[in-house]
Amino acid sequence: MKKIKPFLLLIMVAVIDLLVFLKSPDLGVKVLKSTGMNFAQMLGVIPPIFLLIGLMDVWVPREKVIKYMGEGSGVTGVLLGILLGAAAAGPLYAAFPVAAIMIKKGAKFTNILIFLGAWSTMKIPMFLFEMASLGYAFAITRLILSFTGILFMSWLINRLMSKDEIQAIYTKHGGSA
Amino acid sequence: MFEKILYVVAVSALILSFYKDKEKTKKGLAKAWKSFINILPAFAGVLALTGLALTVISPEIISRYIGSSTGFLGMLITAVIGAITLIPGFIAFPLAASLLERGAGISQIAVFISTLMMVGIVTAPLEIEYFGKKETLIRNALSFLFSFIAAAVIGVVAA
After folding, report:
1. Where are the domains of chain B?
2. Cross-strand bridge partners of residue B66
3. How far, in Å, are A21, A127, B58 from residue A18 at the CA level?
4. Which terminal residue of chain A, N or C, has fewer Cβ atoms less than 10 Å from its own Cβ?
5. Tens-of-pLDDT digits for all 159 residues of chain B?
6. Which residue of B has its CA nearest to A51?
7. Does A128 touch chain B (CB under 8 A)?
8. Interface predicted TM-score (ipTM)
9. Which residues on A lie below 8 Å from B114 (Cβ)?
């Protein structure tokens, strides 16, 4: 059972896909196509990200991460979280493994959350595209709001979670809070 | 374009690392591979789920709902659609722009863009795998609420 559990979601979706295909072959083919596109997109972004994660793991010293993003890193840690997230490329799910290695190296939990927030909605390439599509007023207002919102939400999430719960996340990724 | 930069950075880092310390580099690659393999089942599940959701809630269906109903109900529908789906920005922004031209409300579009980027219901299984149920639930719920506040402000400023 333990071996099947990680595949549970994949198996469930595959069964639904099959049912969709049997009921409507046209829709089934569409589902298959968009699933293929998703995998292709992942295969585009994920390899360089995991490559960088592996290199970070062996080259970036824990003391440096603690100093710049750990407890007591203050404004530096916050700014680094924002900058690292904003400079990224790829969907939010690509940020999770990066955040995991930052956790392992001793970055503070709020800074991790700030990093995830910035990656989700403050990415520079996306911001430029948003300005071009929806106008300066829209994009800049949203950026300023996102910045404030992310800082506040990261603080709040950290407050709403107990020390044990945060410690459990750190233990899972081989770090300590 | 930015993906290409990512590749250039990653490959240059790999070459530099290999040049400086072969053994360390091998160790790093082994670690990278291991963490990738560990998370792959969850990744594959989420990608398959996204493929299914994106077909059922296609851009055409989204355009039918955004802007059809105005006011708070319209915002709620758009927010939920944005929260469930995972559409890449290069499709979402042009879609949003064309919806605006066709008369969709700016607040509806703003709430859609924000939930689309910040709230991930189909990617939640993966987020849980990394950060646990509680973080996933709180982060997504707060981001959902935040999207409405952001949309209300954008509705006033950018209208």
Report:
1. 1-56, 57-159
2. B69
3. 5, 38, 19
4. N
5. 777 888 999 999 999 999 999 999 999 999 999 989 988 998 899 989 988 888 887 777 777 777 655 678 888 888 998 998 877 777 788 888 888 887 788 888 999 999 999 999 999 999 999 999 999 999 999 999 999 999 999 999 987
6. B32
7. no
8. 0.89
9. 121, 142, 146
